[in-house]
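A reminder from the course coordinator: this example appears on the midterm review sheet, so study it carefully.

Given structure:
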């Protein structure tokens, strides 16, 4: 037996207690002596807080100080409603990011938004290492979570404008109106390539041609991120949804009642690369800071695999071959779709290369599950360190360690005339003239006009989904100018009668303007045939066309996120009772006057179809180059006016 112990210590309980005290003292000594290991910024020291150091050195220093719990916390993104009752959990769990889904309008002003975010930021800064959080939002065509913000045409209209630089300017305005609210990160641009217009997200794409998305990705990413991510006019951009979200087959979706959204994209790898990967290459080359994985699956010949679990596509191709050095964020609760076994789902997604998980509700479960996977070796610490390094790199680039609180000095510019002018220019440039019998357009502005249709006086319809709420709404709080008000503004001398259902007397009218429209929708809710969105003209709008165009010369304007089935309502070109002029207005945003500008010749019509316009919806998928290609209006078609 070793040297005899004093009698007091021969009682095991006392002996162990004494040993415990001695051990604790030893650990404390180690911590105080060994720099870096669990050492906090006690006196504000710590290389990672030294803004004069290169970001990679700051990341390495901070990473070396972090516990595994703190690292996993940084990989966790939580929706505000899931944590608002326990804000201290941001500190407790070291949550890396918060978001609100679907650009939900939680607050009315930039200042109120910044105040909310700053509240959570204080919790993050109170954590041991004081790592600030990032706040993300779907500012995909303006920061529409603020009713007074400018709302731009959705991407399909920007694609029709065939002007990437204009799209970049639109992104820059959106970035300024987003960062002015204290928000650091937008989940945009969608560089998806919509190959079947029945997809409810067609309007989020620039069109069916990968070349369009390729041309737009760079200028738009640079528009959002600017030259300096620390600027109060820049936000981190997100290229989404990686990869192949726009190529899913109809009826291949297994998500709820969806038919095509989140389905399976069945292609050869070469086809996937040519059609859907190319825009991401442009976004990565433009320095995009984040990429969002797609809900969809790809089947390259060996059966469908969820992209969120695809190590080849995410790690080998995106991070390896394309050299993407930002971070990959999951989509909303998308990890859960990988497997009914949550641990397996978490393990598969993180090992595939997902760096941050948009949980977004049960964050404790996610954190404990991933910690268990690290503990068991299911996920390596190297993978965790890689993910956290990528996230921290963007946080340093955003300047969040130096300026963690919202800078609302740009709030006065939110919704400004200058910003609205850019949106009006974009709306006008996106207008696509598909028929113009007798050169009816442009109008002179001296006519007696009769305006009808569901899209004429509806901010909700002209802004569409992702506007103040996920699905958009007919009673949206969004401020703006309707198409009717735009007509009255651009043609003040015209005598305008408005009758949405065309029930008012028509006599005396020189020209009829019938604005037909889709009701707003987003994602798979908008999949044609999945519910109330079927890409056809509503009965009321069809009746308005028949009434008005049967009596006077008329122009039909289509407000929609994609082509709709319209041929049966047009009558033959040149026919007396037919539709004389037809305009695709897409989803023009808050500035309805942009739709009126080319109508009265204030600007030319010069839009070109970014997607093929089918005769019948059943003809989809319909893309230029298809065999027996027989659209009503071909991809790239558009009439011009002076
Ligand atoms: C959604 C969308 C994605 C969006 C995210 C956050 O489900 O797929 O585009 O950015 O959730 O709202």
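Designed residues:
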């Amino acid at each position: 037996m070793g040297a005899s112990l004093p009698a007091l210590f021969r009682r095991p309980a006392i002996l162990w207690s004494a040993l415990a005290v001695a051990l604790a003292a030893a650990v404390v000594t180690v911590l105080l002596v060994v720099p870096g290991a669990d050492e906090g910024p006690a006196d504000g020291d710590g290389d990672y807080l030294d803004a004069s150091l290169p970001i990679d050195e700051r990341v390495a220093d901070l990473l070396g100080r972090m516990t595994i719990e703190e690292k996993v916390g940084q990989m966790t993104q939580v929706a505000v409603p899931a944590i608002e009752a326990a804000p201290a959990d941001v500190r407790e769990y070291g949550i890396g990011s918060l978001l609100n889904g679907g650009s939900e309008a939680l607050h009315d002003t930039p200042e109120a938004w910044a105040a909310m975010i700053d509240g959570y930021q204080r919790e993050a800064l109170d954590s041991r290492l004081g790592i600030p959080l990032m706040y993300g939002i779907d500012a995909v065509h303006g920061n529409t979570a603020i009713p007074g913000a400018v709302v731009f045409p959705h991407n399909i209209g920007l694609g029709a404008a065939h002007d990437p630089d204009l799209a970049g300017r639109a992104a820059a305005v959106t970035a300024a109106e987003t960062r002015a609210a204290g928000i650091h990160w937008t989940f945009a641009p969608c560089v998806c390539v919509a190959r079947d217009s029945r997809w409810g997200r067609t309007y989020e794409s620039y069109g069916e041609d990968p070349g369009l998305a390729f041309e737009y990705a760079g200028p738009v990413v640079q528009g959002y991120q600017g030259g300096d991510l620390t600027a109060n006019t820049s936000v981190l951009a997100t290229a989404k949804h990686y990869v192949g979200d726009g190529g899913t087959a109809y009826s291949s979706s297994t998500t709820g009642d969806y038919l095509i959204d989140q389905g399976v994209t069945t292609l050869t790898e070469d086809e996937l690369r040519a059609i859907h990967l190319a825009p991401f290459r442009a976004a990565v080359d433009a320095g995009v800071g984040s990429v969002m994985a797609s809900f969809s699956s790809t089947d390259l010949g060996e059966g469908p695999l969820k992209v969120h679990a695809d190590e080849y596509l995410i790690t080998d191709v995106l991070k390896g071959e394309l050299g993407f050095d930002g971070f990959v964020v999951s989509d909303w609760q998308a990890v859960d779709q990988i497997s009914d076994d949550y641990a397996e789902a978490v393990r598969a997604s993180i090992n595939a290369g997902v760096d941050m998980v948009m949980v977004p509700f049960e964050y404790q479960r996610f954190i404990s599950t991933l910690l268990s996977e690290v503990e068991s070796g299911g996920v390596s610490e190297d993978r965790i360190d890689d993910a956290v390094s990528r996230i921290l790199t963007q946080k340093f680039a955003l300047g969040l360690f130096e300026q963690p609180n919202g800078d609302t000095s740009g709030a006065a510019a939110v919704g400004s005339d200058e910003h609205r002018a850019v949106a009006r220019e974009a709306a006008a440039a996106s207008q696509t003239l598909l028929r113009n019998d007798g050169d009816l357009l442009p109008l002179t502005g001296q006519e007696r006009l009769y305006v009808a249709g569901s899209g004429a006086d509806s901010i909700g319809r002209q802004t569409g989904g992702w506007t103040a709420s996920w699905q958009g709404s007919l009673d949206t709080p969004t401020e703006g100018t309707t198409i009717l008000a735009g007509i009255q503004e651009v043609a003040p001398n015209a005598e305008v009668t408005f009758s949405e259902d065309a029930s008012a007397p028509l006599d005396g009218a020189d020209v009829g303007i019938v604005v037909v429209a889709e009701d707003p929708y987003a994602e798979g809710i908008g999949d044609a045939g999945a519910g109330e969105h079927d890409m056809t003209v509503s009965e009321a709008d069809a009746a308005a066309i028949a009434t008005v165009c049967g009596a006077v010369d008329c122009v039909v304007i289509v407000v929609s996120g994609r082509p709709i089935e319209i041929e049966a309502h047009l009558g033959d070109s040149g026919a007396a009772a037919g539709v004389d002029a037809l305009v695709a207005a897409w989803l023009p945003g808050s500035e309805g006057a942009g739709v009126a500008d080319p109508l009265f010749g204030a600007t030319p019509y010069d839009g070109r179809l970014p997607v093929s316009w089918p005769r019948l919806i059943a003809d989809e998928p319909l893309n230029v180059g298809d065999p027996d290609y027989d659209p009503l209006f071909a991809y790239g078609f558009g009439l011009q006016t002076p």
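Residues 1-16, 24-38, 40-44 have pLDDT under 50 and may be disordered. The CA atoms of residues 459 and 506 lie 25 Å apart.
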